Each structure stands twice: as structure tokens, then as C-alpha cells.
Amino acid sequence: MILPPYAGLLGITLELDEGAPVLAMPFGTDVIGRPGFVHGGALAGLLEMAAVAALKHALAAEARTGTRIKPVNVTVDFMRGGREKITRAQGHVSRLGTRIANVETIAWQDDRDRPVAAARLNFLLAAAD
């Protein structure tokens, strides 16, 4: 699966898991916010990339790989500060229609049950030209 170039800027890598892919973002100078914490924008970017990966995975499962996706709306909830650790994120497609898709994502560090952030994203789906 190919992720957008922004994923490379954040150092995001793809990890295999059952279901939607899990993305991992290392802590470093490119994603630092206040000292010792991940920047909120980097967390939001990780969540968006996880949503894109989950949506591409779901579209591929339905043989709709040529579908273009365009983000319409993003809502991020920050729950706690991301510390100096690897941050992982995974998306879940809650609705996959012919023109609209809804995706929910969570980001965590040590424990998936204690997320550092979550997001809800809406995408417009367009047929390939």
C-alpha cells in the first residue's frame, strides 16, 4: 500500500495487523511539540494517514482500487499528551458508500485501550477518470 508523501515526512511506517493496517510514527525532532511531547499537528496527521490507509484497504477488499478519495471533514479529539515513544494509529471504516465514507481512527502509545487521540473523518469518493 502506498501512503501519501506526508506520511514519509512524519516518518510513518506500515505495520501488518489483522484488518486495517496499523501505522507507526517514531518520536523525533520532526514531530516534537513542547519539550518531551508529540506535536498535536503530527498526531492529527498520523490519524489522517491511518484513515487513508484503512479506507484504501476497505476499497481494495471491494475491488474499488481506482476510487479517488478526498477528505471533506476531520474532527480530532486529543485525550492525553503523546510522550517520547512510538505512536501507533489504526482506522476503522464505519460507513463505505458509493460517494461518501466515514472513518474513525485512534492513536495510542503503550496501550491501545488508552488512546492519546482519536478522530472522525469524512471522505468524498470519486470514480477514477
Structure in words:
The chain has about 130 residues and is of the alpha+beta class. The chain has a 6-stranded antiparallel sheet, covered by helices on one side. A hairpin with a 3-residue loop joins strand 4 and strand 5. The chain is elongated. The mean pLDDT is about 90.
Widest beta sheet: strand line-up: 1-2-4-5-6-3
Cα(first) to Cα(last) distance is 21 Å
Major sheet description: 6 strands, antiparallel
Radius of gyration: 14 Å
Spell out the helices and strands N to C. HEEHEEEE
Low-confidence spans: none
Class from helix and strand fractions: alpha+beta
Give the integer mean of the pLDDT values.
92
Quick overview of this protein structure:
By secondary structure, the protein is of the alpha+beta class. The chain is 21% helix and 36% strand.
Features:
129 residues; six-stranded antiparallel β-sheet; alpha+beta; elongated
